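DM from R.C. (forwarded with permission)

"hey, sorry to bug you on a friday — could you get me a structure for this? deadline for the figure draft is monday and I only need the backbone to look sensible"
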Amino acid sequence: MFDRLEEAQLRLTQINEKLMEPDIVSDLDTYRSLMKEYKNLEPVVETYTRYKAAREEFEEAKTMLDEGGLDPEFKEMVQEQYTESREKMETISAELKVLLLPRDPNDDKNVVVEIRGGAGGEEAALFAGSLYRMYSMYAESKGWKTEILGSNDTELGGFKEVSFLIEGDGAYSKLKYESGVHRVQRVPDTEASGRIHTSTVTVAVLPEVEDVELEILPTDLQIDTYRSGGAGGQHVNKTESAIRITHLPTGIVVECQDERSQHKNKEKAMRVLRSRLYERMQQEQADKIASERRSQVGTGDRSERIRTYNFPQGRVTDHRIGLTLYKIEAIMNGSIDEITDALRAYDQAEKLKGSDDNA
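My reply, with the result:
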């Protein structure tokens, strides 16, 4: 571990020197690449610097205690420094192990989020709208930008399905554990007898993919145009601006009708298609490596029930880690950091366990 930390420290120094070179500053692509690497290394090196300071204090105290001859009062102070610095080293060492875990290459990417109403009809569609609002408010609290890529809304203001882009630093790292089936238990507004209904909504979180990462041949695409129309005749367009793209080799179909411009709808549909194809490619790669440990919270299986939102009890439970919070109103208003942080910590602990087993 310490060899890797020394290498990281040396590399950060090299990057600092390179960033001062005029040629690098004028080369935007190289500059961005170096800044990204710098940003990833900086917390590792800063933590390692704290570790070395604690180790120096520990060794200094140990030397004095080993040599002996200290008066009782001073010896007590040195003993305290010895104990505190040793505990500090253990704490920082644990932090370093987490920081040195292999990074998910998608963590810094923007995300495409797809939400679809499942079992429960109109109530499921309404909850799909509630989840869209929750993620939008979460994104806003982070200073991220949200843009709808495509939607199929209902007359009561819900969504049969909605896909949207969230642009922001580390968006995928925060939201990647949201993929799966979200279950809601509540009394619908449409229910006269006051009975609690259970409905489900499917969420998929996909890293946004750039053109350079995935080649899509024009001959593999079937592009159809049609007239768009929303619930109750809303957004009806007399021109054929809506777009349906079928990727013939995989059968994946993406539709977009939110924009009045056919060109804009096609652009949005292609962003979603690229993300879906990339997700499929990653899944196929993961399936080929059967022996590789896969995190329980990181599978993103859309058939897995991951969370329940119980409105009568004000409770939200994430079933993967057994976390229950009685603050459903705050969560539905976008305060989901406590959940995402707990999932991330659990995932890291599982990966650490796996790396210890393989050591």
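R.C.: lifesaver. Confidence is low (pLDDT under 50) at residues 231-237, 289-302.
me: no worries. The radius of gyration is 26 Å.
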